[in-house]
Design goal:
- The complex is a heterodimer.
- By secondary structure, chain A is mainly α.
- Helices cover 64% and strands 0% of the residues of chain A.
- The relative contact order of chain A is 0.11.
- By secondary structure, chain B is mainly α.
- Chain B has a domain of 207 residues.
- Helix content of chain B is 75%, strand content 2%.
- The chains are: A mainly alpha, B mainly alpha.
- Chains A and B meet through helix 2 and helix 3 of A and helix 6 and helix 7 of B.
- Chain B: This is Multicomponent Na+:H+ antiporter subunit D.
- Chain B: Belongs to the CPA3 antiporters (TC 2.A.63) subunit D family.
């Protein structure tokens, strides 16, 4: 056994696909979950980068197996801590956003909406301050 | 020397911890934070002196030999950027503390700003010192995690929406960074930059190209290179102005630095990269056109920031000593000038309460000092002689014309055009904001209550010092460009870097 396990490779693929799909959603909680899946996927990539599993990487230890590469494990550990911290921050942000905006959705960009409204109206030349479409929409 | 090298990173981190535990004592925070910032500047200057004396300086943290342990390296490029960035960070810190005496702390949670800002300082220091890819990733995370906190200070609905975009985009690029790093490790068996520069040339060409492009995308998102720039003009203007000043001055530049480091050391190209040339031209055009199309001065400055990332990328894309010299000069000049522009817009906001060109006017009469403080960096960012922007642009144009490649000639033409467009954008602010009579629909100036008189004086003084710093870059253009040229030569021929890092490694 020299290469990484096929199951792990497939898991990475599924995690990445699901993660990116969730990132595209409007609901913040889904975005956070998507980010978590992506983080797990990336950590698995790090583990896979070390090659096949082997004996415990202890200096001076006695094992009949070839020693596993300890560096990717150390990197994955660090990356997990970072992902963990940032996920906590994202959850706090989603909570704050729900409290402040009263909904769990990514808001439209104000300017984008203004431009869309202007285009519908066909009045590109009028300065946007005169009739603010936002106020009429809501 | 070995003790000195971690200091630009360790000192602010220690300061952040101290600020965290003393976060209720405002006076102490106000003294502590600038002191730590000044200490960081001193440490960075010491690193610069050491690099000037000894060439590339490297430390193996933890005592493990090179390709396995954590390596901190400073060469001419990192030392120069360390000094410039820590100085700018200190200036913005003073600006914020001066304002904070009245407004910042009263309106926000006590003592969140200082620890987060110091952690950001630490992260920026580590980005410039990191000697391996994983450390670079950690440095970016330290820097970005504090930037998420700074971004969400005093959350309004608009700021929260913008920071969500910012956070999610940054995180996505971080995850991609981690993946690219894992793939690089799988292919080359190391993440140490010096070691990679020896092993990567042996990889198959396809693998090299794929990894190089992956890193280009990763740092392209972080550095707002068109077409991966869309998050920036949306997110930056929403933050507090001095926070935007830090972001604009350093976060994108750190990404550009990382791109320069990785592309020259690990994926060098002999004849330059046409992909990067095209991206550079696109970035210049889209950024400066965006600056012309916007009415909010923060958005105008954010778009010019995007546009000018294109110049640095142009210098890198040429892959010659001349091109890289131009890129380094541009980095230094732009860190100072872009921060100054945002600090000036903070002064404008403090004076009038407005940032929209629709409602601004008559600023020249209102405050001649602000007019002068705006005019100089605005001319500098447009590249009008004799400012620092002119020096940096001239170096780039000469490099582009000296490269002997038709595509580089074309991009040089685009760069000249983009300079003129930047000048137009700045002239628009100058004409509408400063010389037009105050429009009728302008609101009343805000109550000056949040800003103490002394605080505003300090803010003005700090901005004036930054403007003077921008002028100093032009005055000392000679020594600076000879230093940059040697830094660029080191980048093109990294044998000294390799020797400093890998000396005495276990085989």
């Amino acid at each position: 056994m020299t290469g990484p396990a096929l199951v792990l490779v497939l898991t990475v693929a599924v995690l990445f696909a699901a993660g990116f799909d969730l990132l595209m959603q409007r609901s913040l909680i889904r975005v956070v979950v998507g980010f978590m899946l992506l983080g797990h996927g990336a950590n698995l990539v790090l583990l896979l980068a070390g090659g096949a599993a082997g004996g415990p990487p202890l200096l001076g230890g006695e094992s009949r197996l070839t020693m596993a590469d300890p560096l990717p494990q150390a990197m994955a550990l660090t990356a997990i801590v970072i992902t963990f911290g940032v996920t906590a921050f994202l959850l706090a942000l989603a909570y704050r956003s729900r409290r402040l905006l009263g909904e769990d959705e990514v808001q439209d960009d104000v300017e984008d909406r203004r431009i869309c409204a202007e285009r519908r109206r066909g009045s590109w030349d009028a300065p946007p301050e005169r009739h603010d479409p936002l106020e009429e929409d809501e | 020397m070995n003790v000195l090298l971690p200091l630009p990173f360790a000192l602010p981190l220690l300061g952040a911890a101290l600020a965290m535990i003393s976060r209720r004592r405002r006076f102490w925070l106000r003294v502590l934070a600038p002191l730590v910032g000044a200490g960081a500047v001193a440490a960075c200057v010491a690193v610069l002196v050491a690099v000037a004396r000894e060439g590339v300086v490297a430390v193996q943290v933890g005592g493990w030999a090179a390709p396995f342990g954590i390596t901190l390296v400073a060469d001419r490029l990192s030392a120069l950027l360390l000094v410039v960035s820590s100085t700018v960070l200190l200036a913005i810190m003073l600006h914020a503390v001066a304002e904070g005496a009245g407004a910042l702390e009263r309106r926000s949670e006590p003592g969140v700003f200082h620890p987060a800002y110091l952690a950001l300082t630490a992260g920026v220091g580590l980005v410039f010192l990191a000697g391996d890819l994983f450390n670079l990733f950690v440095a970016f995370e330290v820097m970005l995690a504090s930037s998420y906190v700074l971004m969400t200070l005093q959350p309004t609905a608009e700021r929260l929406r913008a920071s969500m975009t910012y956070t999610v985009v940054s995180l996505t690029s971080s995850i991609m960074f981690l993946t690219a790093l894992g793939l690089t490790y799988a292919a080359a068996g190391t993440v140490n930059l010096a070691d990679l520069s020896e092993r990567v040339p042996a990889l198959p060409a396809g693998t090299r190209t794929a990894l190089g492009l992956l890193f280009l995308v990763v740092f392209g998102i972080k550095g707002a290179i068109v077409p991966m720039h869309l998050w920036l003009p949306d997110a930056y203007p929403a933050a507090l102005t001095k926070v935007t000043a830090v972001f604009a001055a350093l976060l994108t530049k750190a990404a550009v630095y990382a791109l320069i480091r990785v592309e020259t050391l690990v994926f060098p190209r002999e004849h330059g990269s046409w992909v990067m040339l095209v991206l550079a031209a696109g970035t210049m055009v889209v950024g400066t056109l965006g600056a012309l199309a916007n009415d909010d001065i923060h958005r105008v400055f954010s778009f010019t920031l995007v546009g000018h990332i294109g110049y640095m990328l142009f210098g890198l894309a040429l892959f010659s000593v001349a091109g890289l010299t131009g890129a380094i000069l541009y980095l230094v000049h732009h860190i100072v000038v872009q921060a100054t522009l945002f600090l000036v817009s903070d002064l404008i906001q403090a004076r009038t309460g407005e940032t929209s060109l629709h409602r601004l006017g008559g600023l020249a009469r209102l405050s001649a000092l602000i007019a002068v403080l705006f005019f100089i960096p605005a001319m500098s960012v447009s590249g009008v002689p004799p400012t620092s922007g002119f020096v940096a642009k001239l170096a780039l144009f000469q490099a582009g014309l000296g490269s002997g490649r038709p595509l580089a000639y074309a991009v040089t033409g685009v760069a000249v055009l983009a300079s003129l467009l930047t000048l137009m954008a700045m002239a628009r602010i100058w004409a509408l904001g400063f010389w037009r009579p105050r429009p009728a629909e302008a609101g009343e100036p805000p109550p000056s209550e949040p800003y103490t008189r002394g605080g505003v004086r300090v803010m003005q003084a700090v901005t004036a010092v930054m403007v003077a710093g921008g002028l100093l870059i032009a005055v000392f253009a000679g020594p600076l460009s000879s230093w940059s040229a040697r830094a660029a030569a080191d980048l093109v021929e990294p044998s000294a870097y390799r020797r400093a890092v890998l000396d005495g490694r276990t085989p």
